[in-house]
Amino acid sequence: MIEKITSSQQAIALEDKYGAHNYHPLPVVLSKGEGVFLWDVEGKKYFDFLSAYSAVNQGHCHPRIKDALIEQAGTLTLTSRAFHNDVLGPFEKYITEYFGFDKVLPMNTGAEGVETAIKIARKWGYEKKGIAENQATIIVADNNFHGRTTTVISFSNDENARKNFGPYTAGFVKVPYNDVDALKSIMAENKNVVAFLVEPIQGEAGVYTPDDTYIKEVAAVCKENNVLFIADEIQTGIARTGSLLAVCGNCSCEGHCEKQETYIQPDMLILGKAISGGFFPVSAVLANDEIMGVIKPGQHGSTFGGNPLGAKVAMAALDVVKDEKLAQNARKLGNIFRERMQKLVDKYNIVKLVRGKGLLNAVVINDSEDSSTAWDICVALKDNGLLAKPTHGNIIRFAPPLVITEEQLHECCDIIERTIEGFEK
Ligand SMILES: *Cc1c(COP(=O)(O)O)cnc(C)c1O
Questions:
Q1: Which among 209, 273, 275 is the best mutation to test ligand 1's pocket, defined by most ligand atoms within 8 Å of the CB?
Q2: Which of 242, 278, 392, 400 has its CB 3.0 to 4.6 Å from that of 331, i.e. a possible disulfide?
């Protein structure tokens, strides 16, 4: 029997009894979404300031993406890659042109995209760079977040994500984030390095935003050492940080413009989350022929990867990003948001700093990392009609859908200010 939910309490009790306890959600049960808004079971309306970890940059239930999904859902959803389908080719052409790469390998979740990039990089290392068998090394950054699979947690710093999940996958070394010299010295020491895998802004770690020159220097060091620069833009990509990709730097054109001077092309680009606007899991790895060419039939894949439903949804979702100029909006409103938050930093003791880019921002609370203050503030924000979530102990990430208007953003900043005020001693 499918139980009908009539109260939040009832829904939470069901999850508690029948679901694995692998998350610690805020006590709110959502039943409807539209644009920047969410509604709970009792009908209370909220501003969404998480956007499903930046998967719904286009806003909840975007009508254009919904129409694409419905149309394709009634036509053809899945054939597997045992056969061709008539949406995959157009999707591959569309997405490679959109981001300026020769080829794409479509998968489903972000973690699978990361796994795919790791496999391609290793194979490239053996077959193109001449690394001895089983010696390929991939450099990652401290405090990275690249997903939850066994290999990916092998190179995490997060003890909670790692403990008792060993033995871990070998072949990864860590460097401090935003430290080009550390990267250089590892590459000088270790000739088996095939790739550097990095987030252009570390989202889960607490929206750590590196120096403006970091990505450019990373790309240069990688190039000098014949090492692949792999950008994980699963969270930062698709207009979130005020440009189509975080590696676009300060360019705010929609789509890849004619190789503007601030754009740093990674050797591999990993996308997920907002690539499908929250409707259906789609992820992708993009690379040029000399890299993607190492993958031959039978060497990698996924039953759902490249399915016509996901492919149709992703094209509609990417169309929306361009047509609605979401990168420009994120850039403009991001500046306003940080200005407003900076006023709180100046005024209230409890707010330590604000950082971020575009509409991916974090406010650091003036309390210890293991305090519950950030959580308590998020609960109070919820009561005041705004949903956000702490990343780590004392950090709150603020990432609304990119369709938010300036007026709505000011209203939200008022809610945040009012809430913070209540915590000031
Ligand atoms: C969310 C995220 C992932 C993992 O994506 P899933 O779809 O949850 O597997 C990987 N890297 C980054 C940077 C992310 O933000």
A1: 273
A2: 242
